[in-house]
Amino acid sequence: MLKVILYINIFAALMSFHSCQKKVNVEIANVVKEWTNSEIKFDSGYVFTRLGKDSIYNSIPKSGYKILVYTDSIGCVGCNLRLPQWKEWMKQIDSISDNKVSFLFFVHPKDETDLLLLLQRQNFNVPVCIDKNNSLNKLNHFPANAMLHTFLLDEHNKVLAIGNPMHNPKIKELYMNIIFDKQKISEAEDKKQTKVMIDKWCIDLGAFDWKKQKSCEFILTNIGQELLVVDNVITSCGCTTVEYSKVPVQPEKNLILKVNYMAERPEYFNKTITVYCNAEDSPFHLKISGNAK
């Protein structure tokens, strides 16, 4: 019981510190405490398909742990889902968990055609339930905050943790700690801090053909005395990806972040790239904008 309380308290703290506003902090912490250890209800008849084509199964898998990802029709579905990041993390978990974790993707799309095109374009060959009637949300009444639409469940579908690990590396770390039964929440490594100079914080990509990928680069210079180590780089949208070297950066050397943007449709965009590292004032929030015509 003490261990459960420990996880609840630490998780609530992680979620609340993610926001800057005190009122929002309290609201998120309260939601986390309310949902932790509650049971997610499932109806029968859910159909999971790969790329919207082949029916894989029509019942909820029975496994030691489940990660439930729910996305509604509000906003950009691709931005909310972040499929490339999920694919990479699922591959990592599958390689070390001996299939003890199931991933349940429920999507209530505004436009089913757009969703299927997204799944095919991202080659997201993972079972997804296209919940046209939004029945899962109607049954459970999920929190209003979209950041709280991802749940780590136990074998009895009880909530162990809440939050989207694709938006916060600390949430991802907490999920891993629970899944692999670590007795203590691992604390952040006591890394020596360095200083970073960034050549530009915002880049305007201008107007371009929305069907073509657009790229740009941010240069981070290590102006401190210690090695620069990047822990994670998170984008605010699944249509934005970042390439960079994972090798620690020596003092007075540069790290180049190559940002690639591939529009899903014609639109004016403004996206954020968040860099977590051992530099002072981390994380850094970089911006790209433009008009994909």
Automatic annotation (TrEMBL):
Pfam families: DUF1573. It comes from the Bacteria. InterPro entries: DUF1573, Ig-like_fold, Thioredoxin-like_sf. Gene3D superfamilies: Glutaredoxin, Immunoglobulins. Signal peptide: none annotated. This is DUF1573 domain-containing protein. It comes from Bacteroides caecimuris.
